[in-house]
Design a protein that fits this description.
Length: about 140
Amino acid sequence: MNVPSSDGEVSVSSATDVRRLSAEALAYLGDAVYESHVRRTLLLPPRRLQDYRNAVVERVRATCQAQVMASVRLHLSEEELAIALRGRNSCGRGPRHLAPELYRQASSLEAVIGYLHVHNIQRLNEVLALCDKVSCQSL
């Protein structure tokens, strides 16, 4: 059952509701949550708008997310790893210019972030802090 919070947002109220969400829906939500988080963390120091955009795009592209997932995976619970596997297996091939495995890994990270966003905000913040520590290398 979806329950409106005091600020008007709708949240998933039980673990059963979370399990009913498709992996694609969790990844869709996780994509938005992760990009919003990256935008917030890159606001300081002040820069030109184009520089913000370039830094965000570099951080949220699938190749970087795959590297982040490879590092963060070691710190995930069994339940979170199961969500990651669901996200990885349900995402399809992805864009032609990208290796399918990189796309799957990025989708698994997004699914975990989406899951934690509706299930456990405190744990989400812990995982996002781990993500922030990963330095992405260009592939």
